[in-house]
Amino acid sequence: MSFYSQEFTHLSVLLKNHVLWVTLHNPEQSNAISLEMVDSLVRVLKFADFDPEVRVIVLKGEGTSFCAGGDIKAMQNKTGMFAGESNELRMRYIHGIQQIPKCIEELSTPVVAMVNGPAIGAGCDLAMMCDLRIGSAKSKFGETFVKLGLVPGDGGTFFLQRIIGYSKAMQMSLTGDLVSGEEALKWGLLNYLVDEASLEAETEMLASRIAANPPVAVQMTKKAMKMAYLNDLSTILDVSAAYQGITQRTEDHFLALQAMKDKKSVDYQGR
Fold first, then answer.
1. Which residue segment(s) compose the domain that 225 sits in?
2. What is the CA 5 to chain-centroid distance, rounded?
3. What are the tens digits of pLDDT across the range 147-191?
4. pTM of this prediction?
5. Is 263 exposed, middle or buried (0-12, 13-18, 19+ CB in 10 A)?
């Protein structure tokens, strides 16, 4: 039995043509994040990032929701990730849901969020952690923590403003208002807005276009981009020189040069 064929709590996984489809699977709670989902997601993502068969990861929600964020019922009952008093809650965040942004930020494999419905609270933040986002008119985004008398506890203040800028991120965070799919495209919350009926097919085509590129170059380009918004120019130039030195001596680089000369496609090997 392969790693991906086993059962994961509140998560389902499918590997197809170098694309790993990871589905948040807690439909009774609109795919709200649970402690079990955190454990499953981090485990799968870490394994996939070291798997040469996985070149792109697609993250989506089961049914008509992407992710509702926190479980309101669990908040009311003070159970699950919301159990305990203040300091215990703080530690639950650090050792629980905050493991997701730490894990995703360290991935070399590109992650595409297929936002197939509302992405609310921590669900909005989860989408922002991904490298690209594709959605439809059914997509909705809300940084709604303030509506519940809370603050983003999972890295939302870090990721959101890097995607849409400080002013828009502040607007979403202070009002808690929802942003429609059409607005999301204009603001940069979505990279692509497509018809609802073709969302999965369009996502597959996007993931396939990325997966068709030389894997080492894709991974290092992603890492360089991630580092570039956190470091100074001299540091990035040093890193870029090192990455270029590595990629320029890969087999795939020379395959790509020949493919461009011959005007043919090629199946890259990740070497």
1. 215-262
2. 21
3. 999 999 899 999 999 999 999 999 999 999 999 999 999 999 999
4. 0.94
5. exposed
